[in-house]
User: Fold these one by one.
Assistant:
Number 1:
Amino acid sequence: MSARDVVEAAKNGYAYRPDDTGTTWTLIKKTPQSVLRIAPEAVHAPDVQEFVRVFRLRPGLSQLTGCEFQIPQNARRLINV
C-alpha cells in the first residue's frame, strides 16, 4: 500500500485501518454516524430524563448511536446535533 493508495481511498470515502497486530490493513467504507453522548454524572438529571422521555430513548444510557435515536427535524434547532 502506498501513500497514493491512502489518498485515493480518502477521496472516495474509504479508509485503511490496521488490524489488531498492526501487520495488515483493511480497506473500509467510512460512514458518518451521529452519536449522542451524555455525561455519566448527568444521566439521571431531571433535564436529561425529560429529554429521554420526550425522544423515547432508553433510560440510563450515556451514549447512543444514530441508529438508536431519531431527532425530529423541527427539534434539531434546539440541540447541537
Number 2:
Amino acid sequence: MAPRPMNQREGDVLVITVTDAELVAGSLEQPARFGEVFHRHFAVVFGYLRRRVGPDLAADLASETFVVAFRRRSAYDGRYPDARAWLFGIATNLLRQGRCVHPRRDPRRADL
C-alpha cells in the first residue's frame, strides 16, 4: 500500500489528508514523520507561550514542548485527530514545572 500524501492543494486551499494522530502513530516506526506535527503546530504553541513569558523564553519552551511530545509520542491518544490540545497541555505543564525562571516583563512598566 502506497503512503498517502500528507497534504494536497485544491486551488488556493491546503487540504490536510493525514491527521496528527496518524502522523504521531506513524512516527513510532518512522520518526521523521513527527516533523510534520512540528511544522503544523510550532507557530501556535510558540504564540501561546510568547503571550505568557515573552519571545526569548517562548522559543526555548516551544522547542522543549516538541522534544517532550516526541519522547512521549507512544502515549498519544489516537482517538484525537488534532494534537494541538496535547501540545498545549505539555507546554502548560512545562510552565507550571518552573521551566520559566524569568517572569514576563510588563512592557508598560519602566524599570529605572
Number 3:
Amino acid sequence: MKTIVLANAKGGTGKTTVAVNLSACLALHHGKRVLGIDLDSQGNFGISYGVDPRQLTHTAFHLLTAEAPDVRAYIKEIKPNLHLIPNGTVNLNKICHFWIHYVEVRNIASPSNCDHFR
C-alpha cells in the first residue's frame, strides 16, 4: 500500500485539483484501489465527486473524533476502486481543540505539553 499526501498551509495551491485528478487517474485508468480522505474544511474534494457536504452524517471530522469508529461507515464509494471519506461542513480546526481536550482530560499529557497546539 502506498500513501500519497497533498498538504500545504497556503490556500489556492492546487491541492484539491491534484488530489481529484490523481485519485481518478489511479483508480479509473490504472486500476489501483484509492481511498481519498478529505481533511479540507471546504470539502471540495468530495464536492468534486458529487458529494453534498450538507447531507453527510459520517465525515472525516466525526471519524477522527469518534471513540471507536467503524471506518467502513465513513467510506463512500464513488466508482469501482475509488472511495472517499468526505469532510462535511465542519471546520477541521476544531479537531485541534478536540484533541487538546482529549489529551488533557485523560492525563496523557499535561496541559503545558499541548501549548504548541493552541
